[in-house]
Predict the 3D structure of the following.
Amino acid sequence: MVPQPVDSLIVLADDDATTRKLSTRVLEKDGHRVVAVDDGAKAVAAVREHEPDVVVLDVMMPELDGYQACKVLREEDPLLPVIMLTSLDDETSVSRAFNAGATDFVSKPVTWPILAQRVRFSLRARRTSEALQQHEERLRQAHRIAKLGSWELSQETDTAWISPELSALLALESSAPLVLDSFLEIVHEEDRARVRKAIYRVAMSGGSFELDHRVFGGDDVERLVHHHGTMVSEVDGGSGRLVGTMQDVTERKRAEAMIDFQVHYDSLTGLPNRRLFDQRLRDEVAVTREAGRRLALVFVGLDGYQRLVESLGHDVGDRLLRIASNRLRQASMRHTVARFADELFAVSLSPLEAEEDVHRFVVDLQRRLMEPYSVSEHEHYSPANLGVALFPDDGDDMAALVRSATAALARARQQGGGRCEYYARGMSDRAEEQLRVASALTQAVTRNQFDVHYQPKVDARTRRILGAEALLRWNHPKLGKVPPAKFIPVAEETGLIVRIGEWVLRSACSEARRWEREGHGELHVSVNLAARQLLEPNLTRVVRAALDEAGLAPSRLEVEVTESTAMGDTKASVAALRALRDLGVRISVDDFGTGHSSLEYLRVLPLDVLKIDRAFVKDIGSGIDDGAIAKTVVALGHNLGLHVVAEGVETEEQMTFLVDAGCDSIQGYLTGRPQSGSDLLERLAESDT
């Protein structure tokens, strides 16, 4: 026989020297190591010292016989294989051996091949048992991590056995069987009848059920579980067993609800955001068209909001927006109201019985919004400008209706003083203004009217500058400093953003290379990409050319895209960003939480950096839940392996909170306003001294 390539240790105890010698020779020839002793007490000592894989005991030995030794060993290690050698082959002796804990026995005189085979069998059995134990432990760990437990219902006794994991999940004292009614008592009373009905249906008719419901455990804490039950057929054709699982999905559902809120609601006011409003307005237009009726779209812009922010800060402006949103809710109880953007709100009046209903609504709304706002030490006034468009008169679909209401609001703002304007066909002021701005933008590129400022990004803990975001500025010779909010949308709509964006990219790369020459080679520069740029087929070539022209390493460049930009054409966006990442450029998602905010979105896009939008930063310390949301986003980003940056940080309180939350980098007025590249270099030089 060829010895097996094993490395197992056998403790052999027999008071007969010849048997010991022959047994040792056979087992060593079979590939085992053997420790041989001549009585039971020595066998116990040898097991404790050497921790063997198998023990072979003679039954009849002085001092401590095989039965007694086996019993001692079995108490210390329930899984240790013990083979008894006995010349007593009567049923009583065999039974006594197994009662002592033996796993097998071999009769004397020993047939040596049988002894070797029994040892091999015992080793395989032990390894199988250990593997099974490991598998079961891994399964238990997986169940604990997944917060998953199981149960089994006996149809004969109407009792339910629950697993230890389910006992722990429900905070029950034990996993002993429960009468079905007692088992159902853990279910929330409002869900109990539904669960009972599902269990009995499967018990009577077979099949399975799957539902979500609430439960209470021994700690009286309400949880939401995903409950699945099914009938398992018996192999012998019996009536079958009803088994089930419960998984605690409380945190998952809470996270889904938070994400759904981020996707569809404005975090500041709690109103539906533009995305949800668009969905509802589209549905209302379809229903109204089918019914042959009318509806009104009202855009509401708060006059003086920007001046208030510029003079007193964003915190005061945010408090004004919250008060205004509450007033809008009160005036629009039967209508859909949303925060469309910044200080712009939207209301759809549907169905519309008569135009007089619009007039009454507008008068009531303006009266409410004209009331003073107590948002600081003094009362402030922010009269509302309203733009109204009617369906189907001013637009036969949602997009056209929105354009008409936007144009009407623009006319109201031109008039000023809390005006309301109704859309009139042929109104083209906005289109003419767009043409003028587009023409000026075209000249601005060639006449060097643009400038790039850089806002520092700093390490959250050390406040050391890590890099800077490039921000476009336009200095028009007649108009002066034109706000980006005025010309960027026009640049995007006309396609000029592609040309302007390429100029910004080259300028930023050149500036970063200048920082490197001045001894700041660790700094990176980030550049924003608009939707039109992201979809340009030659984007990668343009980025590579800008890097080569400046002599800048790709790792020093970071491109920032907003959620709405990337999700406009997800497939094309993913391809473009992956190409840039393959080039060595870092990818950052900007304004996280204000657009789609989907976990699927974060999973699909090739990202390196997650930027928390200022909307979740500005209310930190005010008692609003934005601090909690910011902390959750930090944890989410880290779990996805992303570097997390918080933008819009303006106070030390916000800074401290974000540092404690584990945020990696900070960007905002607290640590640095947008400044020229030269000014940033001076700051870097000062920090080095």
User: Anything to note?
Assistant: Residues 372 and 378 are 10 Å apart (CA to CA). Residues 1-5 have pLDDT under 50 and may be disordered. The longest strand covers residues 465-476. The first helix runs from residue 17 to 29.
